[in-house]
Amino acid sequence: MILFLTHLCHVFYVTIGFIVQGRHNDGLIENLSKGGVFIKTSGTFSVGQEISLFFGKENMDGTIIRVEPQGIGVKFGKP
């Protein structure tokens, strides 16, 4: 099997705050790449929802592209 990666991915755990549909949530960044992030979190989320992420003083917008029992996959940027 050959696997092609489009972005280098860094695995680490950092707390993050984010807003989905006006609700503030918290989670842990599990891995981060240039194109997106996986956030370990609980809650009810849906693919296609817009999300605002807060990295310390930095803010970034994105779209939820994957929902799993342990968290959500987010693609950076607006759809």
UniProtKB/TrEMBL annotation:
The terms under GO molecular function for this entry are: cyclic-di-GMP binding
Which InterPro entries does the record cross-reference, listed alphabetically?
PilZ_domain
Q: Where do the PilZ domain residues begin and end?
A: 20-76
Please give the start and end residues of each transmembrane region: none
- Tell me any Pfam family this protein matches: PilZ
Name this protein carries in UniProt: PilZ domain-containing protein
Its source organism is marine sediment metagenome
